Amino acid sequence: MIELLGKSLEELQSIFKTHNIQKFRAKQLIDYIYHRYVFDFQDMTQFPKELRQWLSDNCIISLPTLITESVSPDGKTRKILVEMIDQSRVEAVLMEQHYGYSVCVSSQVGCAMGCVFCASTQGGLYRDLTAAEIIGQVVIFGALTKEQIHSVVVMGAGEPLQNYDNVLQALQLLHDPVICNISYRKMTISTCGWVPNIYKLADEGLPITLALSLHATNNEVRRSIMPVGARYELTEVLDAVKYYYDTTQRRITFEYILIDSINASMEEAHALGEICKDFPNCHVNLIPVNGNEHIELYKPSITNMNTFKDIVASYGVSVTVRKEMGDAIQAACGQLKAAHGRKKENHE
Ligand code: SF4
């Protein structure tokens, strides 16, 4: 069967040409899938009956299947659990922001990186998601809300820069004016510091925002909560991020999870401010850690978090404490579950 999801206009035209189908049908098909959210070939009534039958017999649109959906009490955050064709499951989140709808997608089933505060990594890495499976998470939210998706963050389960080609292909499709027409400037890739591919992404010349999961200001603490810190020293990571900034001129976002008694001291706030001096216009996103049944980590008191924030801000840095929009439905950072990450038969 020929997979049609995640194909560019040119690729679809080429498939259709091979099968003697008129070229303009490819554009119509894109319109059905990405703008009208019609996924059943028999409902594509602009197509002649014979074409609908040929598509049904030879092609698939393997949109992930929606398994569960939860909505936060304020209705602004929706988390979905979706299942891929091989029964792998991942979660994705839709957030209603003041500027529009933002979707957070997963890039892998599980994650190999082992960050101690993160629920996604608890079962390890199962597999990379394909470009179609990544874009499918955005399409599902479009279909559910019938709203234009304004921005995409690759910040769910997985280390996106370990699944580089598929993530980039998905973002290129989401950017394509014929498909989803989302500006690269409204896309963010979050990395725990996968150094070689930070350089590679910088050299693509795309104005994608880079978010670095920094989470510590020295190697010792970083290694203790992020195993990737043993592979890449903090200076190597920051050098790569500086190269990204210098090359793209895109504002860097530093994600910093606040964990009481681990990385949230006032000294660390000053150290974070010092690091930020090298990155003009950077933004620091402080994230109170989310404990769950697997993770016994605690957020600092509100007073301590505010003091931490004020110290970082005193270095002239833009800094916010992330609103815990999804906390009520466990859709906040580090809470997208790994429990659903493997094939159903392994876990149920
Ligand atoms: S925080 Fe990101 S990189 Fe770290 S384990 Fe979780 S998903 Fe992987």
From TrEMBL:
Binding site for [4Fe-4S] cluster: C111, C115, C118
GO biological process: rRNA base methylation; tRNA methylation
Keywords from the named record: 4Fe-4S, Cytoplasm, Disulfide bond, Iron, Iron-sulfur, Metal-binding, Methyltransferase, rRNA processing, S-adenosyl-L-methionine, Transferase, tRNA processing
EC number: 2.1.1.192
Residues annotated as the enzyme's active site: E91 (proton acceptor), C333 (s-methylcysteine intermediate)
Pfam families: Radical_SAM, RlmN_N
Reactions catalysed, as given in the entry: adenosine(37) in tRNA + 2 reduced [2Fe-2S]-[ferredoxin] + 2 S-adenosyl-L-methionine = 2-methyladenosine(37) in tRNA + 5'-deoxyadenosine + L-methionine + 2 oxidized [2Fe-2S]-[ferredoxin] + S-adenosyl-L-homocysteine; adenosine(2503) in 23S rRNA + 2 reduced [2Fe-2S]-[ferredoxin] + 2 S-adenosyl-L-methionine = 2-methyladenosine(2503) in 23S rRNA + 5'-deoxyadenosine + L-methionine + 2 oxidized [2Fe-2S]-[ferredoxin] + S-adenosyl-L-homocysteine
Co-factor: note: Binds 1 [4Fe-4S] cluster. The cluster is coordinated with 3 cysteines and an exchangeable S-adenosyl-L-methionine.
Primary location recorded for the protein, binned into one broad class: cytoplasm
Cofactor: [4Fe-4S] cluster
Keyword Heme tagged: no
Binding residues for S-adenosyl-L-methionine: G158, E159, S190, S213, L214, H215, N290
Record family assignment: Belongs to the radical SAM superfamily. RlmN family.
Miscellaneous comment: Reaction proceeds by a ping-pong mechanism involving intermediate methylation of a conserved cysteine residue.
Function: Specifically methylates position 2 of adenine 2503 in 23S rRNA and position 2 of adenine 37 in tRNAs.
Protein name stated in the entry: Probable dual-specificity RNA methyltransferase RlmN
Lineage of producing organism: Bacteria, Bacillati, Bacillota, Negativicutes, Veillonellales
Gene encoding the protein: rlmN
